[in-house]
Design brief:
The protein is mainly beta. It contains one helix and eleven strands. An eight-stranded mixed beta sheet has the order 6-7-8-9-4-3-10-11. It has a three-stranded antiparallel beta sheet with strand order 1-2-5, with no helix packed on it. β6 and β7 form a beta hairpin.
Length: 143
């Protein structure tokens, strides 16, 4: 068993989680839905195996918003913090809002597993930096 461990949670501390395996990939998502949910021009999501993820505190405080079939967004009912996404078409995976990992810890995957997704949906007034990352006009490599 790996000694990999990342913890995280919502802003108010009502919900806490643990990830026990490195993320498979991480993408900066530029889609309109993520912009609205997070109130930001883009959000970073890390794909993790569901079996490596546990809600350790506050499972009963998780709300669910079905933003679009088959996507179910999970958030803290107390502070509204968006924590992770469940997907009907990928039941063995979760997309964790990377910014909710404690202390900004790296999600643990190799550097070549970082990308930009849904770049075709980005806001027109902001250019994506020339950071050398792979860009996907729509969904990233995992989807």
């Amino acid at each position: 068993m790996s000694d990999f461990k990342r913890t995280g949670g919502c802003q108010c501390g009502a919900v806490r989680y643990t990830i026990r395996e490195p993320a498979q990939e991480t993408a900066h998502c530029w889609c309109g839905m993520c912009r609205k949910i997070h109130g930001a021009v883009m959000v970073t999501l890390s794909t993790v195996a569901r079996a490596s993820f546990s809600v350790d505190k506050g499972a009963d405080n998780l709300g669910r918003f079905d933003s679009s079939p088959p996507v179910h967004r999970r958030f803290c009912k107390s502070c509204g913090c968006h924590l992770f996404i469940e997907m009907d078409d990928a039941p063995n995976l979760l997309e964790v809002a990377t910014g909710t990992i404690d202390d900004g810890a790296h999600p643990g995957h190799a550097a070549d597993k970082l990308s930009h997704a849904w770049t075709g949906s980005k806001v027109g007034w902001l250019e994506i930096p020339d950071d050398g990352l792979v860009r996907f006009d729509k969904q990233g490599p995992g989807g």
